Amino acid sequence: MKQKIVLSALIAAAILPGESFADNQEIVVTASRIPQPLDSTIADTSVITSQQIRDSGAPDLSTLLRSLPGVELVQTGGFGSQASVFMRGTNSTQMLVLLDGFRIDSATTGATAIEHIMLSDIDHIEVVRGNVSSLYGSPAIGGVIQIFTKKGHGAPSFSVSTGGGNQGTASASAGFSGEVGGTSFGVHAGRFRTEGVSAMNPALIPGVNPNNNGYVNESADASVRHEFNQDHAISASLYGTRGNISYDNPFNLAVTDINNIVEKIQKATVRSEDGITDNWKSDLSLSQGSDDSHTYLNGVLQSHYQTVNDLLSWQNNFTISPGARMHVTAEHLRQAVSSTVFFTQTSRIVNSLSSGFDGNYGRHSVQVDVRQDRYSDFGTANTGLLGYGFSFAKDWRATASVSNAFRAPTFDDMYWPLSFGYQGNPNLQPEKSKNWEAGVHYSGKGQHVDLIHFDNRIHNLITINAGFTTMININQAVITGDEFTYRGDFGANHLGFNATFQDPKDALTGQLLPRRARQYATLSASRDFSSWNVGSEVRYSGPRNDANPVTFAPVTLPSYAILNLTSRYTVNRHLDVVGRIGNAFNRNYSEAYGYNTLGRTIYIGMDYRQ
Question: pTM score, two decimals?
Answer without folding.
Answer: 0.93
